[in-house]
Amino acid sequence: MSTAEPETLQNPQGLSTELESGTAEWAFPEIQLSSDPAPDAVYGALPDSSWFRLLIVQPSKKMWAPLRCQLRVFKRRDAHGKYEALSYAWREGEQSSEFFWKPATEKDGKWRPQQIVCNGHKVSIKGNLGCALIHIRHSSRPRAIWVDALCINQADPMEIAAQIQTMPDIYGHARRTIVWLGMSHPSKRSVVSNTLSLPHPEAAVASVCHLVKHWDPSQPVRYFTTDPKTRFAEAKEPDLGCGFARNLSHYFRSPRNGWETDLLPLKEFFGATWFTRKWVIQEVALSRSVDVLFHNCRVSWRWVGLAAAIIRMQYDNALREHRMYNVYNAYLMFRLSGKHGLDPARMTFVELLRLTAAFETSEPRDVFYSLLGLETTDHHPERGPLIQPDHQASYEDICISLARTILGRAGQCGSNPLAILMDAGIAEDPKRKVPSWVPTWQPGKPGLLSPWSLDDCFTASKGLDVHVDTSSPLHLTVQGIHVSNVQWVSPYVMASEDDIALTIDWLRTFSFTDPITSSHLKVYSRTLCAGRDVHGRREKNRKAMMLPFIAFAIYGVLPNTELFRWINTGYRSLPKAQKYSLCLDESSESENGWSGEVRWSAEWKEGRMRFGHAASLAGRGAGLFLRRTDTLVWGPARPSPVIWSAGSAMPFVLGSGSGGCTTLVGPCYVDDIMDGEAVAAAQAGTAHTGPLWSNKLRLAAQSSKASPLVIQRVTLE
C-alpha cells in the first residue's frame, strides 16, 4: 500500500454522534471504499506516520457468524470523524473469559472468536477482542474501527513506536470511542436482581443509571439493550420507583449485610479488568464521545463516570467495605476526561504518574508511554514532551532519564521543586537497579504519605532556597536541613488496621507518654493519618481526627469493652461537649472502662471506621518512629537515622551510603514541621522542638538539649 492512493470514508452531513432519531440504533459513519481490491497481505508498510490502518468489519445478520474484515490504509487527516475507536483490555479473555464458545470442530459447529478472516487471511486474536467485534458488528452495514492490536503491525517495533505517538490524534479525532468491558460471567447471566427484576448484565448497567438519576432526577439518563437473536436495540430509562432506587442510601451506608446481593451487579460492572488498565486512561480522556458496552448493554461513559464520582464523593467509606476499588480508577478517568463540566484537573507529569499508580500495564515501559498523550503542566505531547517513546531503552534508563529531566527543571517548579523525590527511596523498591533518588514507579508500592489534593499540599521546605546538582550521572546533590535523628522505631509495619492498633499500644509503653493529654491525642491522631482525611486530602482541622482516633483505639478493630486505661484517660480529660456519645447509658463509665455491656453509638462506630480508613490509606507500608528531640515520625518502615527537609513538600528519611554519600530511604510525615517550621528555625539559627518535648522525653533520649538547625548540602546516591 505504500504507493496506493489513500482510501476515502464517506461521512453524511448532519450525522449525530448520538442516536438516530426515534431509534435505539447507533449512528455511525457510512463507509465508501475505493473499488480497489483489498490488499493480498494483512500488513504492508505505511508510507509515513501520517497514515494509519482501519479495520473494516463486514456486516452479518447472524450475531455469531465468523468475523470477516479488511485492513485498509488511510490518511489520518482525511479520516477525521469518520471512524470509531475501540478501547478494551488486551489480556482479558485469555483463559477464564474464553469458555463462552467451544473450540471450532467439524462435529459441534461452534465458533470461538479467537480467529478472524482479514484480507483473506486467517488472523489469530484474543477472545475478548473477538467478543467486542461481534457485539460492534452491524447487521447490514460495514463499520470502520480503529483497533490497536490489529491496525498496528505488532511485529514491527518501528511502526509500534511511531503509531503510539499518534494515538492522541487517533482517539481525539474518532467520531466515537467504544469501551468494551467484556461478557458477563455465564453463571450470572440468568441470575435476576431482586430489586431491579433484571438479569445481571442489564441490572449492572441499570444500577449505574439509577445512581445518577437518584442523584439528579433532571439528568436524561438512559441505556440500551440489544437482543442477540433479533439484533433489535431497545432504549430504557431507570425507574425511580423500583426497590434499588428506594434503598440506594442503605446500600452504601450500611456494613456488608443483606444489601450485599443487591450490589452484586454494580460490583461486577466495576470489577471489569478494563478499569485497571493504564492505556485506557488516555483513550477515554482524549475522545470526543464514549459509549460503554457490557455484554449486550450499552450506556454513555458520562453516566458511568458520574456514577463513579457519586460513589467516590458520597459513599467513600463503603468502597473498601464492598471492595469496589475500581471505582477510584473510573472516577480518576472521568476527572481527566475534561468532558464533565468540572474544572479541569491541572497537574504535573509526576502527579499524573502518582495518581495512576494503581493502574496496570503488561510492559513496564508503558507505565510512562501510556500517559504521554495526556497534557500536563510540564508535558505537552507535541510541543514539549518530557520523554519520547523509545522501545530500545531499558526501563531503568527511562526512570533515570525522566528523573534527571524533571530535576533539571526544579527551579521552575514553584513551592515543591523536588516533588519527584517523594516517590523515590530504597524503601519504595529494595531491589532497585537505579540510584535511591530515582523513582521506579513500580505498581503495588506503599502509599504516598503526601496528600492527594493537587491544590493543598504540605510545605515542609517553605522558604528554603533550591539547590540541585545533577552533574554526576548517578549522584544528586541537594540543599536541606538535618532536622533530627531517630531514637525509637516501632516493630510494626502498616499492612492492616490490626497493625495500627498494635502501633497505638506500642506508644503506650513509653513512660513519657503517660499521662496522656489532649496535646498527645492531637499529635497521635494527625501523625497516624499523615495529616490527611478519609479522601486523602490534607486535613486542615488539627483536631478533626482526635475523636476518631480515640474511637479506633477503644473500640478496636472488632468491638471490645476491655478499654485501655491509657487511652481512656485521654478521653476522660476532654470536655463533655467534645466527646462522642459512646453508649445509650454513660452512667456505667469508670476510670478503667465501662461496666456491663456497652452499646456503641453510630457516631462512635463511624468515627472508628473513618480513622481506620484514613490511617490505612496514608500508612500502607509505613512505620512509626520517635524522634530524639520532640515528636513522632510516620515514614518508611526501615530503620534509618536521619530526618531531612530539602526542597519538597515532605521531609525525608535518610540512611548511610558509601564513600561519604547518603541514601534516600523515603518521604516521612513529621507533624510539627510540615509548614516550614524547621526552615524558619534554621534560618534563625535556633533549635526546634515539638509538642511532645518534655523532661521525661529528654531523659529517656539521653539528650541534654535540642541543637540548633543548620542549612547544609547532602549528596544522594
Automatic annotation (TrEMBL):
<protein>
    <submittedName>
        <fullName>Heterokaryon incompatibility protein 6, OR allele</fullName>
    </submittedName>
</protein>
<dbReference type="Pfam" id="PF06985">
    <property type="entry name" value="HET"/>
</dbReference>
<dbReference type="InterPro" id="IPR010730">
    <property type="entry name" value="HET"/>
</dbReference>
<feature type="domain" description="Heterokaryon incompatibility">
    <location>
        <begin position="83"/>
        <end position="283"/>
    </location>
</feature>
<dbReference type="InterPro" id="IPR052895">
    <property type="entry name" value="HetReg/Transcr_Mod"/>
</dbReference>
